[in-house]
Amino acid sequence: MPPQRRKSGETNSRPSPGLTTGARKLTLSCSRCRASKLKCDRKEPCIECLKRNIGHLCTKDERQPRAKRARVAPSNDGSDSQAPITHPNAHRSTSQPKDSEAEETVQILENYVGDAPLEQAPCMAAPDYPNLYWSHPQRQVDQLALLREIIDSIPEIDLIHLLHEVLLTRCRGPLGNVVHAPTFSRHAETFCDCLRLPLAEERAMALLKISMETIACHLMALVLGLAFHPVPAVLGWSSTPLAFRVEELRGSNVHAKTWRSLALRCLQGPVSLFCGSVPSLQAAVMLLLDGQEDPSTLDVILVTAISGARRLGLHLLGEAKLAVPLETGSESATESHIRTEIGIRIWWALVMRDWSRGQVLGYYNIHPAQFNTRMPLHINDEDLCLPTARVDVDGHISERPRSEFTMLSYTVCALDLAVLVRESIDIRGPVRQPPNPDQESKMRKHLNKRYEELVTGLPSHFRLGSSIGLNANGPMTAIPVHRWVLHQQLWSLFLRLHRGSLSTQGGRMSCQLLAQNIISTYGHIKSRCTVCRSLTTGEAQLFNAAAVLVMGLMFSPRSSEDCTGSQLARMMSRDKVREAIELLRMQSEDREPSKHLAREKATQRSIQALEALMKLEEEGSGNCERAAADTGDMNGARVSLKSKVMDVVKSLQSTAAETERTNLESLSFDMTTPLPMGSVGIYEPDLLPGISNDPSCSFWQFLDFDLFPEPLGKDASPLAAPPGYGGWPFSPSSGLAQSTSAGTPGFLDTEQSEASRIEL
What we know:
Elements: H1 31-36, H2 47-51, E1 72-73, E2 83-84, H3 92-113, H4 132-135, H5 140-153, H6 157-170, H7 172-175, H8 181-195, H9 200-207, H10 212-228, H11 241-252, H12 254-266, H13 278-290, H14 295-311, H15 331-361, H16 409-428, H17 437-456, H18 479-498, H19 505-525, H20 536-555, H21 564-590, H22 597-630, H23 634-659, H24 661-665, H25 689-692, H26 752-755
Antiparallel strand pairs: 1-2
């Protein structure tokens, strides 16, 4: 028999005869309908609760008394409108905590009755989502066919172990340590066990038990291991059959393309790339580091990976504490710690690449206010395996001191640098605003202070001029490579911050010290890392450093009154420029002539430009004192120097135009892509995201001359400077005003006007 339903207004309680307060007043609708915002028929039990078979839980809340009307003052104009004197929310604030508590209680009861899971703890990542594309039964045939292709393309087991070892020893820092070394080695052994089976069909059926995202990780590990494996000229190479086999695979370039293509097919989702699990996000980060796809594809991978990471809750991990359980050897706790920390590393690896990419786009997708995940712990991967000795007084896994080198040392410092890059994007803004000298001066001082704090906080093994790790063995051998990669990005950011002051003596002196360090360390890195020694961005940084030193020599010509120390400094600067020229020449000779012809031409033009400018500087320094005695007009000297430099650049342009006239017609005349290499699609590992995404880091940026200037009109003044040259020969921001693409806006060029008044 259905329960008897009461009409609205009837209550379950009756007033006591001795009381004069009357019956309790209840709400018209039941509490469940009010909480779920359903239309209640106001009966007990209501129709909505009866439909859900929970009529016994249908109750009504006691009505909260309304606040008394506030006293009002009569209107001056005599109308009926009245203005309240007291705040209308005076009584509402007292009842709001009670209402919110009741609302939370109702939500918990609803979840319990509806068998819904409770809210997850904020320090835990969500479980991996299944890939619906490969989970569909009709695609099992396609999955087996793909696994057979993978089996046919995989090299021998010993070579797989070698390439995986290269990934863990030489690639973890640039990768952001998104793989846990012991866990990855264990999974790799399982992967190899499947490949050891005698029959191909047995191997395919065994691989069917491994997720496709994990297989994609192993394939991308082979790609990166092949790229980072030492060449014969790099320390660590040994003449073994496996080493020669690696050189054979790398020379053909077919295997790397095949493995990369198979990895992308393994990550196929219902609509686009699948990034709903930790292994899929690890593979996506590997694809971003590999950098062999076109920029638009890499942007899609980055955005998809960020969306997948948010779906797993990696952006809301907060100050996740890794508590050590009382019982030793807890495998579930170890897996939970590893998953949480790897999720944090993955999130920050995506954040760093998103903020670096924002230099080109002018915006970024991840705003600091939209996530609260802490930075990765400064620990080794072995510290996450329980039992561990890295435990604080609260029973949580603790960090190692920053002064101690770990495999996370570079990652932590690179993330600090990424924060500074984001601040520079925020200051610049999405739209270029009219120049405001006062505001831009404050911006410059703020960024310069942040930069100084970053450099001052570097550990001893990453300091400028440090030689720690040059003769080390084991994990310490990664220190010189990590230090060089970090210094390259520091130099790029420092030069961008101070390029407006290069025409002042103080600005040149501050840049010259770091420029000399860049040139000195380039020779060391060539013998330590296969990828670093062949990066286009590394050559660009080398040219920029030499160009800064040449500018310092030309802006401070030698005179008879120079002291011995000044002459010694000039001699050291010349030696460093010559060293940079020789390094560029050696790099050009070591490169295979059949590959990257446009890049070879760019390197040759850089060498020719530095040699011509050095010759011009030597001639000018000898005639400076005599020219100053012959004329008192320094403006004439300025025009003379500018005309000489212009002649050097124009001669290089005419030489290049004669040999590649057809190629130059299709080039963009933007300041940010002055060389042919910018249009031929040279793809290389994105080891320096802070530089590869910086539109101001080109070979000719700091010469500030348009390489392809428009000819002067017939009615133009012969003494007028051509468009894009600016009023000062080496003002690094004058050409940017005419830039039509994503060139770095001149938000830090506040000293340009002051520099233009300085005389040579």
